[in-house]
Amino acid sequence: MSDRAESESRKLLGRLRDTMAEEAAGQERLDKITHLTADSMGTEVCSIYLFRDENTLELCATQGLNPDAVHETRMKLGEGLVGRVARSGKVINTADAPSEAGFRYMPETGEEVFSSFLGVPIQRLGEKLGVLVVQSREAREFTADEVYAIEVVAMVLAEMAELGAFVGEGAALTRRHTQPVLLRGTTGQEGTAEGHVWLHEPRVVVTNLVADDPARERERLQQAVETLRVSVDELLAGASGDADQVQVLEAYRMFANSKGWMRRMEEDIARGLSAEAAVEKEQSAARARMSQVTDAYLRERLQDLDDLSNRLLRILTGQGNATGSEMPADPILVARNIGPGELLEYGRKLRGIVLEEGSVGSHAAIVARALAIPLVIHAPRVTNEALNGDHIMVDGDQGIAHLRPDDTVVTAFRDKIAMQEKALERYASIRDRPAMSACGTRVTLLMNAGLMADLPSLEGSGAEGVGLFRTELQFLVRNQMPRRTELADIYARVIDAAKGKRVVFRTLDIGSDKVLPYMKPNDEPNPALGWRAIRVGLDKPGVMRMQLQALIRAANGQALSIMFPFIAQYDEFRLARVEVDKAIAREKRLGHKIPSKLEIGAMLETPSLAYASRKFFEEVEFLSIGGNDLKQFFFAADRENERVRRRYDTLNVSFLSFLEGIVQRCEETGTPLSFCGEDAGRPIEALCLAAIGLRTLSMRPASIGPVKSLLIRCRLDEVRAVIHDARDRGEQSVRPAVMDYLQNLP
Ligand code: PEP
Ligand code: MG
Hints:
Elements: H1 3-21, H2 26-41, E1 45-53, E2 56-63, E3 74-76, H3 80-88, E4 92-94, E5 116-124, E6 127-136, H4 144-162, E7 181-184, E8 186-189, E9 192-199, H5 214-238, H6 243-256, H7 259-270, H8 275-290, H9 296-317, E10 331-335, H10 340-346, E11 352-355, H11 363-370, E12 375-377, H12 382-385, E13 391-395, E14 400-403, H13 407-429, E15 444-449, H14 456-461, E16 466-470, H15 472-476, H16 484-497, E17 503-506, H17 534-539, H18 541-555, E18 560-564, H19 570-589, E19 598-604, H20 607-610, H21 614-619, E20 622-625, H22 627-634, H23 653-669, E21 673-675, H24 683-691, E22 696-699, H25 701-713, H26 716-728, H27 735-743
Parallel strand pairs: 9-10, 10-11, 11-12, 15-16, 15-22, 16-17, 17-18, 18-19, 19-20, 20-21
Antiparallel strand pairs: 1-2, 1-6, 2-3, 4-5, 5-6, 7-14, 8-12, 9-13, 13-14
Helix pairs in contact: 1-2, 1-4, 5-6, 5-9, 6-9, 7-8, 8-9, 10-11, 13-25, 16-18, 18-19, 24-25, 24-26
The chain binds phosphoenolpyruvate (PEP) and magnesium ion.
């Protein structure tokens, strides 16, 4: 880059800054900027197009085109060269615009006389705001220096827009972050909530975009990068053992030492940007690339670069996570993603959570479910759009969130919440009633748990005990393997909190989607069918032995129920049982109290176990159907795969017949049987399970009310007849028939 180009660019940026500092209306500023830019670039035309809605760009200011076209000329995303720049986020630089693919002639602008065209996207941190264009009569391609210069101007424009410099009349000049936005994501946890945004990672605000003294800015940048390098090295030194963390930090280190990254930022500074603006410009470019790459590895690396840029900006601006703003009383957490530990720290304070990323099976989602906090995941752009304190409504049932909702949405949403609250009151009124169907069949309703945070629900929900305590959650939310004493302490508190009600502890169920952050991940082609749960427990019994010991100590002479996950054949149960016997003998030898009553059960999660020998059914003290896994194996449809997971109905006659067979086998041998998959908490599914003979259902605490309320109203013998009739008629699923029956209930 020539010295002249640098000094021209600095001059232009200096004048832009002065424009920004002057008291002026948004339109006036835009007009001035087009004038200054055309003048500085030596082009006849400079125009600014901004989005007036998600799909439409509007000419908002121009130097050189017909002034009457301002706020009149509009184009759709992808339409014409300007629309193409906006859609692709890429520069178009052509000497002969009219012969360029996609060129669209706009007669009202008078642009037909301009042959060369240079359009660059105006975007901020991956968000598209508009397009900046220069045009000239002379047919020539713009030089790399010129392209670069105009990109820097576009960046400054984007930042100025963020700071509210171009507010004026009309949709294209509305203040940013003031419009209602509907964010469409995916359900992570059902439920609705209204509150105000609390950003997990508050945005860094850069106000000094332009700087006069490049040497000083370069030095500031170098110092900040040095601080960053040192802190990454320190983190690396302290991260021994954790392969994932080390990998991320290595990537950080690679970027922090990357000459290309540094060089680009130094060039931006030479052009007149401040150190902060230079970092943000590179960050924006990385985000723009991120939205286009599909390769998972590359995306992750760009994500690393994004994280690193944030750290660097915090060092440069001195803005930490503590921005001085106070958490609202009704916080809805907004974040790109969040770890389970961090989520637990917020705890029940949160009314709702909206994440840009995340997945249904992620640990954060597990924690959100345990805390019964409505969660929407995959909500695009939410961290760009939301500001701390914004009004937001979260609809976890539909997987959407309304940011800054307008009055009609607020009213409709509040109606929905009120209806749900009424239903909650109804459930509270039947809380202490037993779940007895209209035909007099008693069904036991238990709750699923996994965290201490779940236990207050034991009383509040009316659950008669804990049918499934997922012990892996205690392992998942930590950074290192918990110690035996720690576990014994937690289990003892769980037993205490249950106040004599039965708690079924399931031993560690890891592998598949549940990967411990501190254990070496297994690279398996198909983890759901891989080395998981009891298979790990038997092959590497150290952790299971420690867990059994902790459970026996926690029971401290009281009754204890232990359940082994994922038993696929008799032998696995027998061997696991031997481990319990050994643990009891050892504890006795050590002088610890042994449980007054010990029940050892298994989860039936693979079809194979339904056909185990009669002897197995006689020996196992209880069985619990893990419907989530059982269903995925029965239909060969991955429970984590959004494309297929809802494809097969739980009320499909094949699955119900299969479950009926299990009920019959258990009746023959008198083996207590329960069902603890998610379907137990869905009222219609629960009703059908009870109708085919299941007498114990374990579910999320929030489901107990709705399930009980439906059971009380129905005669199970009638539902059973409806199911059998539908099956005899050749229906694929009994759902329509059962829905019909429910509609005609008195
Ligand atoms: C199940 O598979 O149904 C179950 C209850 O266990 P998890 O969801 O923890 O695999
Ligand atoms: Mg399971």
